[in-house]
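Appendix B. One record, verbatim.
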Amino acid sequence: MTTARIDIDVLRVFRGPGGAHGNTLGVVRDGALVPDRASRQALARQLGFSETVFVDDPERGVLDIFTPGLRLPFAGHPLVGAAWLLDVEVLELEVGDVFARDDGEFSWITARAEWAPPRTLRQYGSPAGIDALEVPPPGEWVYAWSWQDEAAGRVRARAFPGRGDGVDEDEATGAAALLLTHRLGRALNITQGRGSQILTAPGADGTIDIGGRVHLEEVRTVEFETVDVPAG
């Protein structure tokens, strides 16, 4: 192994109305500094964010997304954050092109529900029931939700990845919000975790817009060990 130093942009994505909360995201702007999948996985595990993004082409918006335990072809909060940081209109992913825009307060992406990894969407009777939940043991990925105000499309939610990789609860999850919006077929205003806010709106063409506030918290320099990959 070889020890290296690298700068990580640390963002907060899906912050609440007062600017608090939001899900932490690590972005490696120069993905070439961590070129192989094993080293990227090791760095994502070291950082411990729910997701870390490696930028392979900032102009075309080519990204690689990792949780502490696995690589993801699509994830909501990393794409909203990366689109805001890179200021691009299109992100190129394996699943397809994700269009992005910014309205001054919220950063938005347009995606399809079939791109999201499977989640168990579990409805509860009240927001109090959601607040009282304890972290379940590792197993299925659960998005627990209830109506706060059904007429207004306001939802209370919490997310439990169940992966056993150190992220017991995900503060704000765009992919799960995408799936819930697809199931309910309507625009939603979701309060997730401690107070993060996710906005969604289904389009006429089957796409769904996902939006939230993004803030750059810091640029952090970290030391990490690259994983030696055998030639061939």
